[in-house]
From TrEMBL:
Molecular functions per Gene Ontology: tubulin binding
Cellular localisation: Cytoplasm, Cytoskeleton
Biological source species: Sinocyclocheilus rhinocerous
InterPro entries: EF-hand-dom_pair, TPP/p25
Alphabetical list of PANTHER family matching this protein: P25 ALPHA-RELATED (PTHR12932), TUBULIN POLYMERIZATION-PROMOTING PROTEIN FAMILY MEMBER 3 (PTHR12932:SF16)
Basic and acidic residues bias locations: 134-153
Chief location category: cytoplasm
GO annotation, biological process: microtubule bundle formation; microtubule polymerization; positive regulation of protein polymerization
Pfam families: p25-alpha
Positions of region (Disordered): 131-153
UniProt family annotation: Belongs to the TPPP family.
Name this polypeptide is given: Tubulin polymerization-promoting protein family member 3
Keywords noted in UniProt: Cytoplasm, Cytoskeleton, Microtubule
Amino acid sequence: MAESTEMDQLLSAFKKFAVHGDTKATGKELNGKNWAKLCKDCKVIDSKNVTSTDVDIVFTKVKAKTSRVITYEEFQKALEELAPKRFKIQSKEEALQSMHKLIEGKEPANVGVTKVAKTGAVDRLTDTSKYTGSHKERFDESGKGKGKGGREEIVENTGYVGAYKNAGTYEEKTKAN
């Protein structure tokens, strides 16, 4: 029973990494970038025994020749390839168990995700009530942008001649005189 829950956790970790960063991913296949992220986030890469180059080589070795992704079965083969390299002093089976323990139940870490800066300078620079001159024209009283209407003068291209940009007709012009 313990074996099946361990495999369930490994499969769930595989699926979480498979869909990471890809809205179209189904979770059945893992691409090379996400395989490298899995290895890095789960500490499979330790920079001594296993490097990112080793991870890339194993990925290329286990995937189908023309494929760009690996399935769950290929993923397990890749772990079998990396386990003895990562845990040199353990037997092959123990090394694979240790490798599974590193990955089980993990999910992609969102390290380095940009957060909104809320410092005094940013607040001051984005406060539209302090804008002057032509920049002030781009916002309404509430501070919401007017869009294109606030950026440029919109000229109506009406008139009786293509190059004549002001509204009206020739007759109206001559009556005014």
